[in-house]
Description:
Elements: H1 2-21, H2 29-38, H3 42-45, H4 65-73, H5 89-101
Helix pairs in contact: 2-5, 4-5
Amino acid sequence: MRKFTILAGLLLAVSLAQAQEYAPPKGDAHNGAALFQKFGCYSCHGSWGQGTGRDGPRLNPPPAFPVVLQQLRTPRREMPPYVASIIPDQGVADIYAYLSSLPKAPDPKSIKELQ
């Protein structure tokens, strides 16, 4: 049993290291912006991925590409599934490129009016 636990731990560590090294596919941010609008992503996540606070979480900055892809294909909660026949992997890469290209929100501590 001890050997199994050690082996499972090693496999988990290797898979986590590989996931962190995974680079998202090249995407076209301009096309991604159009797809973000076309598929209505903005209605829950905001036009700049800022989230709506009620329906969709913040996507700026986006989580890792595999997380985004998995959420689109097999969503949790109320999000509809976007299978590959609706948005191919390249379309997801384009949306990811768009989200990655957005300027990051400033740190609230740096906004004088909020102090």
